[in-house]
Specification:
It contains 14 helices and five strands. It is mainly α. Among the domains are: 190 residues, no CATH class; 40 residues. The strands form two sheets. Strands 4-3-5 form a three-stranded antiparallel sheet. Strands 1-2 form a two-stranded antiparallel ribbon. Strand 3 and strand 4 form a beta hairpin. The longest helix is centred in the last third of the chain and has 37 residues. The protein starts with a helix and ends in a 6-residue tail after the last strand. The N terminus is likely disordered. It is found in: Peroxisome membrane. One of its GO terms (cellular component) is peroxisomal membrane. Pathway: Protein modification; protein ubiquitination.
Length: 347
């Protein structure tokens, strides 16, 4: 808890955190996911057959890891991972500043769902929206049912809902700065909690709680399994929190590096030439290189994958990449934006 002890100097004066602390803890967790995503992408590109599923199911695996991590910190520290890193805690119930550690059960589960499920759903909606934009750019009109049309309409309205949510969050932060609102985020208001600084008694309570968690020998099987999961989450949480104390500035750099505003620069510096295909694939395709590897017929609307360099029929490779997110020949991780149409003077 050394990272939390640095914030104890000002708790005697005021337990209300400043706007800089609450915004800093939000940006910290936003920098962790891009860093893990990049590490998984490197593994998948190194060995697609072994680590490709990590890239394809990254959002679900990250959601599971986030649930375990946040549940551990909410149970033992009454705060999320990033809030605990900045020496903050969540206070439920009467909203008082003198309340110690320990969230109400309803506040605990509301906080856990809003911390983990909302970012996951937002990432899925943004991915679906990006896919719709790609389909509109390539003029793909697939058969749709009434349910699918309603779903697409809801996703199309998402940017407006997101703008309204950002405006609401900005107004909430302004009210928090001027002391009108007790929370800086609508998510905290929905969870019925507020943030306060940790004090010396809270640190002692956390250390005492961690020292009293022994193996439940006389408990049921479910409680024993839950104890093992909690210990595993603690084994991940403590090294991660300690390493972040040393690498917080590096994570802030990663947040900037992988931000949407810096994507063009990142792609220019990190893009690599497509590797040559394996020799046995070259021999197989030497007989008639104009055939599509998927349908085995002459390529129509020829399209090349920038990740592997192979040429396919546009519809064949579009449907395959949309379903599998990889090159059908080499297995390299591939997205729809890696499709490049080939135009010839004859066409």
């Amino acid at each position: 808890m050394a990272e939390a002890g640095a914030h104890l100097t000002s708790t005697a004066v005021n337990e209300q955190p400043s706007v800089f602390e609450v915004l800093a803890q939000e940006s910290l967790m936003e920098a962790v996911k891009p860093a893990l995503r990049h590490a998984v992408k490197v593994l998948a590109e190194t060995n697609p057959s072994r680590f490709g599923f990590l890239w394809q199911r990254f959002d679900e695996l990250y959601l599971l890891l986030d649930l375990l991590l946040q549940n551990h910190f909410l149970s033992h520290c009454s705060a999320s991972f990033s809030e605990n890193f900045y020496g903050l805690k969540r206070v439920s119930g009467g909203w008082g500043l003198s309340v110690g550690l320990g969230l109400h059960r309803k506040s605990h589960w509301r906080s856990l769902l809003l911390l983990c499920l909302v970012p996951y759903l937002r990432a899925k909606l943004e991915a679906t929206l990006a896919q719709q934009r790609d389909e509109a750019d390539f003029s793909i009109q697939l058969a749709q049912s009434r349910r699918q049309r309603l779903y697409r309409a809801a996703v199309a309205a998402y940017p407006y809902v997101r703008s309204a949510w950002q405006a609401l969050s900005f107004c909430q932060q302004l009210l928090f700065i001027f002391g009108v609102a007790r929370t800086h985020s609508p998510l905290l208001w929905l969870a019925r909690v507020k943030l306060a600084r940790l004090n010396a008694q809270d640190i002692r309570d956390m250390e005492l709680k961690s020292s009293n968690t022994g193996y439940p020998a006389d408990q049921s099987l479910v409680q024993k399994v839950w104890w093992l999961i909690s210990r595993a989450a603690r084994g991940v949480a403590i090294p991660l929190s300690t390493s972040l104390s040393l690498g917080v500035f590096f994570l802030q750099f990663l947040e900037w590096w992988y931000s949407s505003e810096n994507q063009s620069t990142m792609k220019t510096l990190t893009s690599l030439p497509a590797p040559p295909p394996p020799l046995h694939l070259q021999e197989e395709r030497s007989s008639d290189s104009r055939n599509c590897p998927l349908c085995r017929r002459l390529c129509t609307n020829t399209t090349v994958l920038s990740t592997s360099g192979f040429v396919f029929c546009y519809r064949c490779i579009y449907m395959y990449v949309k379903a599998n997110h990889r090159c059908p020949v080499t297995g390299y991780p591939t997205e729809l934006q890696h499709l490049i149409k080939i135009y010839t003077p004859e066409s």
